[in-house]
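Exercise: predict the fold of this chain.
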Amino acid sequence: MTWTITRAEWMGQRITLGKHFGWMVFGLVMSVLAGGALCAWGSSPTRVMLGVTCLCVSVSLVPALRQNRRRSRALESIWDDEGCVCPACLVSVRERPCKHGVHAGQQPLLIRYWEAIATQQVVEAMSLGRQLFAHRRWVRRLDPVWRMTSRLIDPAVPMRRRLLVAACCSIVLMLPALLVVRFVTGVYLPRLVMLIVLAAPCWVVLNPTLAGRRGRARCTACTQELADVPPSRCPECNADLAVAGAVTSVQRERRVTEIVGVLAVVVVTAAVPFAAMMMTLPPWLALQVARVTGPSPVLFYELSQQQLTPSETRQAAELLLDSIERPGRRRVFANGLLAGALASGVLDESWAKRMAMAGVSVRAEPRIEDGLLKVGLMPTIGENLFTVPGGAGVEPHVVLLEAALDGVAMELGDTRALTDDQVNADLRAATLAILPQQTARGQELLARELAEPDRFTVTAPIEVLKDGEHVLKVRFAVVVTGPAGGPYEPEFRVDGSLITPEDAIVNGQERVYPFDLEVTITLPLR
């Protein structure tokens, strides 16, 4: 069997492959840059995950680029060998079969396959490829999938049926993934990203039709139909028909109905998942999903916008506090959910202590400086669950009450109370990052905030301490007082006991919760 297309049309693939290569290189560079930027400066797991995804995409493009170059270089040998080249390894099979089992006896199938590739007849190329590798076990196992896919994208199937299939593919394949992203991670995907994701199945189904069908040979420059044996020059425009890409037998008919159909499918199929992404689950169902998958960062914000029963409120409070107290916690947006429930009496005052102590811990870092043993006490404070939208309310403050080393009182520093805003490392890093972008006045204010201490410091003379183990005991208290975000200077009585602020006394109960820290320090320090 001989070629039924001209050499010029066959070699025209080199132009198409060159364009594809350029776009893939552009995608590779952009994926590497985006992935590197997201991984290097990602301050959240979502950014890091997106960065890793971009890097995986860039890695997957490398084999595609290599195959593109190999196929471009093999065009001459494929034509000269009358199509007797394996589509997988691009090795000539005229003399002996290749490692994939393709042999010269399949030359009619091979030449038809390569012509289908050259003329962009996707369905025909898939069918012929399945026949070429029918002896392979994995091809036989996937035969039902190939047959179904061929029927779905076959241009011979009526457009109405293929549009319906495209919509079903978009909804069935993409909707579960979008819902997982929405309700497990709490991420709202941008609308453009959603449209791109949802349009992918539509494009796969409709692309064979938009690619065109095979017909009579035409001049690429003026679309003049040519004789069965094309002349050396176009009779209409006198173009040289021996040049690569000067002849084509692909007829693309950009019918308005097809273009409108594609747009309609994308818009309609986007409506269902978009509605699903924007919807809010009923409170009882959202709480059950969160128990299995873990609460998303926006779960409690959404619950605060709904009317909850007392039972649902207590379940949400338990879930929220568990997520904050759990090691490796991620920040959530309570949006006044517990503060409102506490103020309305749905949650009794016993919840206030757990709300104040959630996520509170202290880490000690000893050092020797200027002949003194200085111990930095760096607290970690959980999110403020006592504020309501607008910032009104009170705030937990960690107060240093006393410290003793081997039973001997240590000298306490000037800082005696700290809040989450002062000790939050992420917030301080974000403030430092935006500092150069501010005006002179803004830089002055932010620099003043960064200069505020983020830890307590207790000291003891080093000369009175012997080498060995020493026990440091520190007593703190969490004081829930206001205003939230405002300064709080703790006041002490003559005996050193803390004076409870007036707004920290609610229903006759003080919102002051002491806790102790005991650390063993070994001298000399290593």
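Check your answer against the key: Residues 283-347 form one domain.
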